[in-house]
Structure formats: C-alpha cells, structure tokens
Amino acid sequence: MKYALTLIPALIGFLALAGWNWDIEILKRIDPKLVAMNPVTALGMILGGAALMAHHWSIRLPLLRKFAIPCGAGIGLVALWKLSEILLGAAPGADLWLFTDKLDLGPGPSNRMAPNTAANFLMLSVVIILLHIGRGLVLAQVIAVVSALISLLAIVGYTYGISRFYGVGLFIPMAVHTATSFLLLAGASLYARPDVGPMAVVTNDGPAGRMARTLLPCAILLPIGMGWLRLAGQRAGLYENELGVAIFVIANVLALALLIWWNARQLFAADLQRLDAENQLRHVATHDRLTGLANRGFFMDRLTHRINLEQRRPVAPFAVLYMDLDGFKQVNDKMGHAAGDVLLQEVAQILKKCSRMTDLAARLGGDEFTILAEELARPDDARVLAERILATLPRAYAADGQATPIGISIGIALHEAGVTSADEMLRNADTALYQAKRGGKGCFAIYNPSDSQQTEPRRGTSTPLAPMA
C-alpha cells in the first residue's frame, strides 16, 4: 500500500503536466468548474512521490537515499519562496516558471499556487528530510498528520461546497486533486517508518493495531459520507432541516454502535486465541510430551499444595501411588525403543482410565509413574485403585509378532501427620514400591514406617525412553 500512496500522487502530477502541455483541461482540473492544478504544484507532486518512493526503496538500494534529499529540499525552497510572496511581499515567480504563457488563459483567475498548498509542500519537505536523517521521526509523523488534516479539510470543503475550507482569503484555492494527492503523500510519509511513534500502534499485528486500522478509516469516512447524504437529501427537498439532523444523528448512533460491536467481537476472538495459546503453553510446560500425563514438576507442585492444605485444615485422606513397569527393559531390548514408547503411551491411557476425576496421574521419567489420589472416602480406596490398575494392565505386550511379559509394581504411601513435604511422601511411596518389587513384582505394597528402617529405597530406574516435557 505504501508504494501506491507514493505512485498515485506522482501520476496525478504527471497527468496535470501533460494537461498543461497539450491543453487537455480534464487533466488539469477534474471538473471545468473547479480550479486547475498549478504546473509547479504538479512537479512538486512528482518530486514528493519520487522522494518518498526512494526512501521506501533505499533499504534495497541505499544509493536512492541521496536522491530523496534534493527532491525534498527543492520542494521546500519553492514552498518558502511562495510563502514569502504571500506573507512578506517578496518578488513573485515561485509558481510562474512552468507554462508561464498558459497560466492566465482559460476560465477563472490566473492559476497560482494556493497558500495552503505551499504550506503543505513545506511540511512535506521537512518530513522527507527528517526521514532521510533518521531523527525526529515522531515529529515527522506529527507534521504528516497536520498536512493530512489540512488536505482533508479541503476535500470536505469541496464535498459540502464550503469554500473557506479549501481556500485562504482572496487567494486561489487548493485544487481538489491537489488536496487528494497531499492526503496520499501524508499517508506515505506515515508508512515510511511504521515501527516508531503513533504508527507503531496502528501497524502492529495485535488487537490494538487491528482495532485502529478498522476504526480510523470509519471515523473519517463515515461522518463525511453521512453528512453529505444528509445535505444532499435536504437540498433535494426530501426533508426539512430538523428531520435531516435527526436522521443524521440516528445514522451516526447506529454506525457507532455497529463499529463498537464489530471491534468488541474482534477483541473477544483475539482474547479466546490468546487464552488458547496460554493454555497450550501451560500444558506443554506441565505435561509429558510422550504420554500426555502430568510431568514431575507439575505433580510435585500439586502434591506440595495438597500437603500444605492438609496441614492447615485436614479435609480427607489422600495417597501417592508410585509405579514402575516390570519387563520394560526387555521390551526395549527385544522390540526397540519405538515399541517401548507405544507401551508407555498405552500404560498412560490405562492409568487415566483407572483414575478418578480428582486424581492426578503423572510420568516421572522412564517407566516410572505416579498417581496422587485425593479426596479418598477411606484410606482403603488407595488399595482399591492399585488393584484396579493391576487387573487392567495386560500380562504381556505384543508387537510385530513378538510378546514380552510385562507387569507393574505399585508402592502406596498414605499421608501421615508427620509428613510435611512432597519429597518425603514420594520417598515413602518409593520405599513401598521397593517392598513390592522384593515381594515378587506385579503387586502392590503399602508404606509402613518400619519399612524405611529395614530396607533402602531403589536408587535407579530403567533407562528413560523419551525426554520429559
């Protein structure tokens, strides 16, 4: 879009010069009743568009930056000359050195550069120079906005037939296609550095940028368009002034309400996307990639929270089930790690199926799993859960025509008053698991404080099959 904003004003200026050269009135002025674009103004449009285009392309072709300064300086000198004629009575000639013999011909007064046109050229020159030196970029955007407002005021004046909006005193007014070209060049100036100042808000890809890009054009075009329609209807005799004002007010209310609803809808959709992304990130950070179960960090945080809650206000019994697959190393050795991954995933599904809604199943690493069984109606419910897991897990794992015996050993640790940390409770469950392994595997054991004095918990597990989340 930024290239169109520079090319269109340059094209308008080129067509205006062609109109002066070959006496084609429609190229000089859009309508025979309107003022023509001065030839020097037309040349300024070409130079302004070329300077901004050179700035846009200077990233790829740095040599073009040297072209922008002469164009901007030339526009500024002509503008200063013209303004000094108007304000200080300096010698005329700033806008007379192109097609001089034709400026006094045709309908209307002698064609000259309008004061507001000269002011806009001066501001355009300052913007081009600031963009070239890379300093005062926010100031350049503010100046571009002022130029755009002057141009928009002229366009509104032509739309509503208010000459004071596009003319200054007795001087020749700004042509309508001159105002349009300045408006486009102001837009090109703003898009020259969209990463700084107010434009950084407008052009960002977030909800704020999308809202700004939706509301700003509507805030400009809708009131102008509806105002014109209201005035046209009144001039056509369709309604009186009072009814026209009422219709205009109602139309504005409806348009504003629609805009608010539309943007609220967009923001709501953006919020849903953000929440979904946050939930996905949270899930990745707290769950095992291979099995989808909670990872060690999440499990320990949840267990710590439950122990702290129990210390403040005892609610209901809870337990930790520590599980280790039997025969997992043989599956890895005989069938490969891919088959072992599938086995871990199937075990994870069995644990989810056997657990209650209030339980938390986790994979600590390798072939080690845990379940935090909360809100137990009675302590013996932990035993029931372990029996359900043992009954559900198959006795052998088959893949590619091979079958390997498997099982699962479970250690159960019920929370006791003296247990104050998650690490301590997990060690108790590990000690019970060690007892289950010594008891022949494929069974469960419940932690007894005397076990920690008679046996040592396991020091290692099978080789991890997949990295943890």
UniProtKB/TrEMBL annotation:
Domain of life, source organism: Bacteria
PROSITE patterns per record: GGDEF
GO MF, one annotated term: catalytic activity
SUPFAM superfamilies linked to this entry: Nucleotide cyclase
Region (Disordered): 447-469
Gene3D superfamilies (alphabetical): 3.30.70.270
Keyword match Magnesium: no
Transmembrane region(s): 34-55, 67-93, 113-131, 138-160, 166-191, 212-231, 243-264
Compositional bias (Polar residues): 449-469
Keywords: Membrane, Transmembrane, Transmembrane helix
Pfam families in alphabetical order: GGDEF
Domain GGDEF: 316-449
NCBIfam families according to UniProt: GGDEF (TIGR00254)
PANTHER family according to UniProt: DIGUANYLATE CYCLASE DGCT-RELATED, GGDEF DOMAIN-CONTAINING PROTEIN
Identification of the protein by name: Diguanylate cyclase
Organism (species): Pseudoduganella ginsengisoli
